UniProtKB/TrEMBL annotation, chain A:
Pfam families: Rad51
Alphabetized UniProt keyword annotations: ATP-binding, DNA damage, DNA repair, Nucleotide-binding, Nucleus
RecA family profile domain ranges (all copies): 75-259
GO (cellular component) term, any one: Rad51B-Rad51C-Rad51D-XRCC2 complex
Domain of life: Eukaryota
GO biological process terms, semicolon-separated: meiotic DNA recombinase assembly; reciprocal meiotic recombination
Species in which this protein is naturally found: Rhizophagus irregularis (strain DAOM 181602 / DAOM 197198 / MUCL 43194) (Arbuscular mycorrhizal fungus)
Name the UniProt record assigns to this protein: DNA repair protein RAD51 homolog 3
UniProt cross-references to CDD domains, sorted A to Z: Rad51C
Subcellular location per the Swiss-Prot or TrEMBL entry: Nucleus
PROSITE patterns, A to Z: RECA_2
PANTHER family (alphabetical): DNA REPAIR PROTEIN RAD51 HOMOLOG 3, DNA REPAIR PROTEIN RAD51 HOMOLOG 3 RAD51C
Molecular-function GO terms, alphabetical: ATP binding; ATP-dependent DNA damage sensor activity; crossover junction DNA endonuclease activity; four-way junction DNA binding
Keyword Lipoprotein attached: no
TrEMBL record, chain B:
GO cellular component, one term: Rad51B-Rad51C-Rad51D-XRCC2 complex
Phylogenetic lineage: Eukaryota, Fungi, Fungi incertae sedis, Mucoromycota, Glomeromycotina
Stretch forming the signal peptide: none
Protein species of origin: Rhizophagus irregularis (strain DAOM 181602 / DAOM 197198 / MUCL 43194) (Arbuscular mycorrhizal fungus)
Lineage top rank: taxon: Eukaryota
Annotated Pfam families: Rad51
Stretches for region Disordered: 377-411
GO BP terms: double-strand break repair via homologous recombination; meiosis I cell cycle process
The protein, known as: RecA family profile 1 domain-containing protein
Classification via InterPro entries: AAA+_ATPase (IPR003593), P-loop_NTPase (IPR027417), Rad51_C (IPR013632), RAD51B (IPR030548), RecA_ATP-bd (IPR020588)
GO molecular function terms listed in the Swiss-Prot or TrEMBL record: ATP binding; ATP-dependent DNA damage sensor activity; double-stranded DNA binding; four-way junction DNA binding; single-stranded DNA binding
Stretches assigned to the RecA family profile domain: 81-270
TrEMBL record, chain C:
PROSITE patterns: RECA_2
Gene Ontology molecular functions: ATP binding; ATP-dependent DNA damage sensor activity; four-way junction DNA binding; hydrolase activity; single-stranded DNA binding
Gene Ontology biological process: DNA strand invasion; double-strand break repair via homologous recombination; reciprocal meiotic recombination; telomere maintenance
InterPro entries given in the database record: HRR_RAD51_Paralog, P-loop_NTPase, Rad51_C, Rad51D_C, RecA_ATP-bd
Keyword Nucleotide-binding found: yes
UniProt family annotation: Belongs to the RecA family. RAD51 subfamily.
Location in or out of the cell: Nucleus
Organism: Rhizophagus irregularis (strain DAOM 181602 / DAOM 197198 / MUCL 43194) (Arbuscular mycorrhizal fungus)
Pfam families: Rad51
Protein name in UniProt: P-loop containing nucleoside triphosphate hydrolase protein
C-alpha cells in the first residue's frame, strides 16, 4: 500500500493538488500523519483529512482461491428457462446467477415473454430445486403486460403441481408469485441510469431478489445520442454497476437487446455491399455481458444460439413459445394443424 | 422529455455553491437531471471539484427524485381491469386475450387496400360507443398523414354494424352526431410536424377525453422525406436521421400510451423486395409467405429499428393460397369469398403467431369463419334443393362426383389445411 | 533470460507470435472483438502456467465476473494437454488452490488490491503468504474498469490508467511476473490502420494513450467471411488428438501482433476454439 501514489487516490482535484504541494508523494508519507496534522498543514477540514486517512487504511479487497470460487459457484442456483434445451445450453440448469446474460433478438422472438417466464421461474421453491427468489423487471419498451405474466405464472404453477410428488400444500401461490415481481417502467435513458444508481437500496430492502431483467437495454440508448463516445461511456458505466450488483447481491442479470442492421461496405468493385443483422449498441457493448445469446428464426423454428460465453460451448438449440410460456420445441407439425382444426371446427 | 427537471427544483434544495459549480461545468453546464446523468461521477469530481461523497450524493438524490416506482404485478393487475380494446374480430380478440392492448403501441402492417384504414375506422367507431355496448365511451385522436380518413365511410360502417343504435330515427342521428364529433382528425404533412404534434398532444388528450390514438400512417411521411436511404448513402447520414426521428416518435407515442393508459394504433406500409437482390438480412422476421413460394418478398416498411419499437405487430394481407392449380381454386372459390383477406399476429408479448381471415364488408372488417360459412352455404343449398348439387359438381371435375357433399367438403378442407401448413 | 521462464499460453501458434509465450517482466495485452476467445486464452494460459511447475501460482483479477471455476476444473480434468501433469500427481484440489481470484469492480479497488499484493510480496517471510511464486497476473478486463472513466472533459481517468499500468509494470519487473491484460475492442471506421487486414473494422479500446502501455499487443478478430454469412462456414470437423476425439466448430479466428517491443509486428496466425482447447493449424494436422 505504501508505494501507491497520492495522485491515484479517489479525492477531489483541489485536495489532491494541496497534498502534492505539501510534498505528499506516496501513501507512505500520508501514513505518518494524523488527521489534525494533515488538516492543519494543507488547510482542509478535519473531516476530509480523516476521510483521506481512512481511505488509505481500509483494505476490503481480498482474493480467494479457485477452489473456494468453485464452491461459491456451486452454491448459486441458476434460473430455469422452462426450456430444457436452452437450460442445457446455458450450462445445465438455466440462466447463471452472478453474471450478466444478454439475449439479443429481432422483434417478435419472444424476448419479453422469456423475461416474464424467468420472473416466474425464479420463484420456484428450493425443495423443487429452484432459487426461491424475487424478481425485478425494468420495462423500457412498455411491453410488459401483466395479464400475460399472470397467464405464464398460472401455467408454470400448474405444471409444478402436476410434477410434484408430495401431495401437501401447493408449491407456489399465484398471488404471492405475482406480488414478488417488481416492475418499473422507465421512459428515457436518464430514468434508467437513475434507477440503476439507486437500485442498491432497493436490493438491500429486498434481499430475496435474485433476478434483474432489463427489457430492453437498447431502446433508450438508441435515440437522442449525438455523442457516441458519451453513450459508450454511460453504457459501460451501467454495465459495471450491474456487474457489481450481480456479484454482491448474487443476482442473475438478464438483459434484452435489439438487433440492428449493419451495413458492411466492402469498398471493392467486385463485391456487393452487404448487410447483416447484429446486436445493437455496437462493438464495445458486446464486451460487457458475460453470456450472449442470439435468438432468430430458421425455417419457422425459433432458435437460440449461444455466441459468447467464457465457460460454455457455442451451441444452437430450438425453443418455442406457446400460450403457457417458453417451452421445448416439439417437432410435430400436427401442433399447428390441430390449432387450425380447433379454430375452424373441422 | 418528462423527467428532465431543473436541478434547482430539487428538494431539499442544493446549496447555491453546488448549483454554481454544476453550472460552471466546462462546455455544457449541468442544469437539468438529464445533463446530470450524462456525466459520470468522476467527471463531476474532476470538473466541479466536488468531494467524492458529495458527487455521489447529488446523483443519488436526483436519481431518487425522478426514478419511477416499482409496482408489483399483482398491483398492476388490480389497477387496470379492462386493459384491452375489443376489435370485434373474435379470433383476434381471443388471441390477444381481449383485443388491442392498452398502454402500448400496436402496429397494423399491410399493402394498400388490405383494410388497415378500415380497421382503424372500425376501432374508432367502437371506441366512441358507450361502455355498455363494449366500447370505451371516449374520444379518438386520429392523426391522418395520408388523407385516407373518410367520414362517409365511418358513418356507413356505423350504420351497418349497429343499425339499431345508429338508426334513421332522431335518437340514432343524435348518436351518430355524437360519434362523429368525438373522433378528432388531424392532418399532418411532415414528419417534423408529427413529432411536434405528439409533444403537444397531452393537453388535447385530456381536453377531449381521448381513449384511442391512431396514427395512419407512421411510415408514409418519413418514407417520402427519406427516399431510398440505403441505396443512396449507405449507412449513416439520412438513414440514421430517419431512424432517429422514428425512434423519437416511438418513444413519444409510448409515453402517451403509458401515461394515459390508452391504446395506440399505428399503421405502416409494406415493401416488396426481390429475393435475389435483397441486401437486407432475411431473418429479421418470420417469413409471412412460405419460403418455397416464388416472387418478391413482402415485409413491413421502416426496417428493423422501428420494428423493435412496436409492442404488437399485425400483418394484413390479401389471402393467398399457396401453389394453386386453377382447378382447385374453383373449388375453393366456392368455399371462400374472393375478397378474403388474412391477418397474422407477427409480434406480440401475449399471443402466438396465429392467422385469422376476414373480409371487408359494409360493416367494416368482418371475421370470416370457415364453419359458419359452411352452415350458410348448407342453408342456401337446402333452400335451393336439387340445383346446388349439380352446380357444385360442375366446378369439381375430379373424381369426387360420387362422393356426397359433406365428404367432399371435408376433403377440400383437409387438402386446404395441408396446403397451408405443409 | 532463460527460455524456461517464458510462460506458454497453451496455444502453439500464439506462443510462436509471442516468441515462446508470455514473458515475465512484461505486460502483454490481448484485445479483440467479442467472442473471439480472449478469456479462453487467459484460462488456457492460467492452467498451462499452473501445470508447468508445482509451485507456480496465478492471480486472476476479475472485473467483469467472467471467471468460472467450474470451467477451469473441466479444462484441467478433461483436456489431454494436462494428462502429463495429472500423472505427475497434481490433483484437482492442488491446482485450484494455486489459482487466486480477486473480484474488483472499479479502478480504486484494483489499485488497492495491487498495493496489497506488493506488500505481501515484499514480506516474503510471512507464513501464510498466498502470493509467493505468483508467475502470472491476469486482469480481465481492463476496458471495463476504465472505459467509463475516459472522457474528454477530464484527464484523471487517463492518468489513473497510466498510473495503474506503471504499477503493474514495476511489479512485473521487480518480481519477474508476467502480466496479461485483457482489453475490449471498439468500432474503427473505415478500417483499422494497424491491422494487416484491410477488412478489420475494429481496434483496441481505451484510446491512443493506451497503445503505448503494453509491451506486446495481440489482437483477435473473427475471420471476415464469418462476419457476413455465419452459417456457411460452420462445419463440424473432428480433430484427433492423442486419445480423444474432439468436436470442433470450425470458426476460424485470427490473432495478430499489433505491437511488440521485441518481436516482429504484423505477424498473424489463424486459430480455432473447440472442445476444451484452442488450436492452431499445426495442432489440427
Amino acid at each position: 500500500m505504501s508505494a501507491r501514489l497520492v495522485s491515484s487516490l479517489n479525492l477531489r482535484p483541489s485536495t489532491r493538488t494541496k497534498l502534492q504541494k505539501a510534498g505528499f508523494q506516496t501513501v507512505k508519507d500520508l501514513q505518518e500523519t494524523t488527521p489534525i496534522e494533515l488538516s492543519k498543514e494543507i488547510g482542509i477540514s478535519n473531516n476530509e483529512a480523516l476521510n483521506i486517512l481512512q481511505q488509505i487504511k481500509k483494505n476490503k479487497v481480498t482474493s480467494i482461491s479457485a477452489s473456494e470460487a468453485l464452491q461459491q459457484e456451486r452454491k448459486l442456483c441458476p434460473i430455469s428457462t422452462s426450456c430444457e434445451a436452452m437450460d442445457q445450453m446455458l450450462g445445465g440448469r438455466g440462466v447463471p446467477v452472478g453474471k450478466i446474460t444478454e439475449f439479443c433478438g429481432a422483434p417478435g422472438m419472444g424476448k419479453t415473454q422469456l423475461g416474464m417466464q424467468l420472473c416466474v421461474n425464479v420463484q420456484i421453491p428450493q425443495n423443487l430445486s429452484g432459487p426461491e427468489g424475487e424478481a425485478i423487471f425494468i420495462d423500457t419498451e412498455g411491453s410488459f403486460i401483466a395479464q400475460r405474466a399472470a397467464e405464464i405464472a398460472r401455467a408454470t404453477i400448474n405444471k409444478l403441481n402436476e410434477n410434484s410428488v408430495t401431495e401437501c400444500d401447493p408449491p407456489m401461490n399465484f398471488d404471492i408469485v405475482m406480488s414478488k415481481i417488481y416492475v418499473s417502467k422507465v421512459h428515457n435513458c436518464d430514468e434508467l441510469i437513475a434507477l440503476i444508481k439507486v437500485l442498491d437500496e432497493f436490493l438491500q430492502e429486498h434481499p430475496r431478489v435474485k433476478l434483474l431483467v432489463i427489457d430492453s437495454i437498447a431502446f433508450h440508448f438508441r435515440q437522442q445520442f449525438d455523442d457516441m463516445a458519451l453513450r459508450t461511456r454511460l453504457l459501460n458505466g451501467l454495465a459495471q454497476d450491474l456487474n457489481k450488483f450481480a456479484q454482491s447481491y448474487e443476482l442473475a442479470v438478464v438483459l434484452f437487446n435489439q438487433m440492428t442492421t449493419k451495413f458492411i461496405i466492402s469498398g471493392k468493385y467486385n463485391l456487393k455491399d452487404q448487410a447483416a443483422l447484429v446486436p445493437a449498441l455496437g462493438e464495445s457493448w458486446g464486451h460487457q455481458c458475460t453470456n450472449r445469446i442470439v435468438l432468430y428464426w430458421r425455417n419457422e423454428i425459433r432458435c437460440a444460439q449461444l455466441v459468447k460465453s467464457p465457460s460454455l460451448q457455442e451451441t444452437t438449440v430450438h425453443y418455442q413459445i406457446n400460450s403457457t410460456g417458453v417451452r421445448d420445441y416439439q417437432a410435430d407439425s400436427l401442433n399447428s394443424k390441430r390449432r387450425w382444426e380447433e379454430l375452424y371446427d373441422i | 422529455m418528462s423527467s428532465t427537471r431543473k436541478l434547482t427544483r430539487l428538494n431539499p434544495k442544493l446549496g447555491k455553491k453546488t448549483i454554481y459549480k454544476l453550472n460552471s461545468f466546462p462546455r455544457t453546464p449541468v442544469n437539468t437531471t438529464k445533463e446530470l446523468f450524462s456525466r459520470t461521477e468522476l467527471e463531476l469530481v474532476e470538473c466541479c471539484n466536488f468531494k467524492v461523497e458529495t458527487a455521489r450524493n447529488i446523483q443519488k438524490r436526483a436519481a431518487k427524485w425522478i426514478v419511477p416506482e416499482f409496482v408489483s404485478v399483482l398491483d398492476m393487475m388490480t389497477e387496470n381491469n379492462s386493459p384491452f380494446l375489443a376489435t370485434s374480430l373474435k379470433g383476434l380478440d381471443e388471441a390477444l386475450s381481449g383485443g388491442i392492448p392498452f398502454s402500448s403501441i400496436t402496429e397494423l402492417v399491410g399493402p394498400t387496400r388490405s383494410g388497415k384504414t378500415q380497421l382503424c375506422l372500425t376501432l374508432s367507431m367502437l371506441t366512441t360507443l358507450p361502455e355498455t355496448m363494449g366500447g370505451l365511451g371516449g374520444g379518438v385522436c386520429y392523426i391522418d398523414t395520408e388523407r385516407s380518413f373518410n367520414a362517409d365511410r365511418l358513418i356507413v360502417i356505423a350504420e351497418n354494424r349497429f343499425p339499431q343504435y345508429f338508426g334513421k330515427d332522431e335518437r340514432g342521428q343524435a348518436n351518430l352526431d355524437k360519434m362523429t364529433s368525438s373522433i378528432h382528425k388531424m392532418d399532418i404533412t411532415s414528419s417534423k410536424e408529427l413529432t411536434k404534434r405528439l409533444d403537444e398532444l397531452q393537453e388535447f388528450i385530456i381536453e377531449n377525453d381521448v381513449k384511442l390514438l391512431i396514427v395512419d400512417s407512421i411510415g408514409s411521411l418519413v418514407r417520402k422525406e427519406y427516399q431510398n436511404p440505403v441505396k443512396k448513402c449507405g449507412w449513416g447520414g439520412p438513414l440514421m436521421e430517419r431512424n432517429d426521428i422514428l425512434l423519437q416518435q416511438a418513444s413519444k407515442l409510448k409515453y402517451l400510451a403509458e401515461s394515459f393508459r390508452i391504446p395506440v394504433v399505428v399503421t405502416n406500409q409494406v415493401i416488396t423486395r426481390n429475393r435475389s437482390e435483397t441486401v437486407l438480412p432475411r431473418e429479421c422476421f418470420r417469413p409471412i409467405k412460405k419460403s418455397r413460394e416464388e416472387g418478391p418478398e413482402v415485409t413491413a416498411a421502416l426496417g428493423n429499428t422501428w420494428a423493435h419499437s412496436v409492442t404488437t405487430r399485425i400483418m394484413m394481407n390479401k389471402f393467398h393460397i399457396r401453389n394453386l392449380s386453377n382447378l382447385k381454386f374453383t373449388i375453393l372459390n366456392d368455399l371462400f369469398p374472393p375478397n378474403l383477406q388474412e391477418l397474422t399476429i407477427v409480434k406480440s408479448p401475449i399471443a402466438a403467431n396465429i392467422t385469422i381471415y376476414y373480409t371487408i364488408e359494409n360493416e367494416g372488417i368482418v371475421e370470416f369463419v370457415y364453419s359458419e360459412n359452411i352452415e350458410k352455404e348448407d342453408k342456401r343449398q337446402q333452400e335451393e334443393e336439387i340445383g346446388p348439387m349439380e352446380e357444385t359438381d360442375k366446378s369439381d371435375a375430379v373424381p369426387s362426383q360420387s362422393l356426397d357433399k359433406k365428404k367432399r367438403k371435408s376433403d377440400v378442407a383437409e387438402w386446404f389445411i395441408s396446403a397451408l401448413w405443409a | 533470460m532463460l527460455q524456461t521462464d517464458v510462460l506458454s499460453t497453451g496455444c502453439y501458434g500464439i506462443d510462436e507470435l509471442l516468441q515462446g509465450g508470455l514473458h515475465p517482466g512484461e505486460v502483454t495485452e490481448i484485445s479483440g472483438e467479442t467472442a473471439t476467445g480472449k478469456t479462453q486464452l487467459a484460462f488456457s494460459a492460467t492452467l498451462t502456467t499452473i501445470c508447468a511447475n508445482k509451485n507456480n501460482k496465478v492471480l486472476f483479477i476479475d472485473t467483469v465476473s467472467t471467471f468460472s471455476a467450474e470451467r477451469i476444473r473441466t479444462l484441467f480434468l478433461e483436456s489431454d494437454r494436462f494428462d502429463h501433469s495429472r500423472c505427475q500427481g497434481m490433483g484437482e484440489e492442488d491446482v485450484m488452490n494455486r489459482i487466486r481470484i480477486a473480484k474488483c469492480f472499479d479502478v480504486y479497488a484494483v489499485m488497492e488490491f495491487i498495493e496489497d499484493l506488493r506488500d505481501h510480496l515484499e514480506n516474503k517471510d510471512k507464513d501464510d503468504n498466498v502470493y509467493t511464486n505468483v508467475k502470472l497476473i491476469i486482469i480481465d478486463s481492463f476496458a471495463a474498469i476504465f472505459s467509463p472513466l475516459l472522457g474528454v472533459t477530464q484527464t484523471q481517468g487517463h492518468s489513473l490508467m497510466i498510473t495503474l499500468t506503471r504499477i503493474l509494470r514495476n511489479l512485473a519487473k521487480e518480481y519477474n511476473i508476467a502480466v496479461l491484460v485483457i482489453n475490449a475492442a471498439i468500432a474503427s471506421n473505415p478500417n483499422n490502420p494497424i491491422s494487416v487486414f484491410s477488412s478489420t473494422k475494429s481496434k483496441p479500446s481505451l484510446g491512443m494513450s493506451w497503445t503505448f502501455m503494453p509491451d506486446v499487443q495481440l489482437y483477435l478478430t473473427h475471420c471476415v467471411e464469418n462476419k457476413i454469412e455465419n452459417e456457411k462456414n460452420i462445419q463440424q470437423n473432428y480433430v484427433y488428438t492423442n486419445r480423444k476425439e474432439i468436436e470442433v466448430i470450425m470458426k476460424p479466428k485470427i490473432c495478430e501482433v499489433h505491437r511488440s517491443r521485441n518481436g516482429q509486428m504484423g505477424k498473424w496466425c489463424i486459430f480455432y476454439m473447440g472442445g476444451n482447447e484452442l488450436f492452431t493449424h499445426d495442432d489440427i494436422i
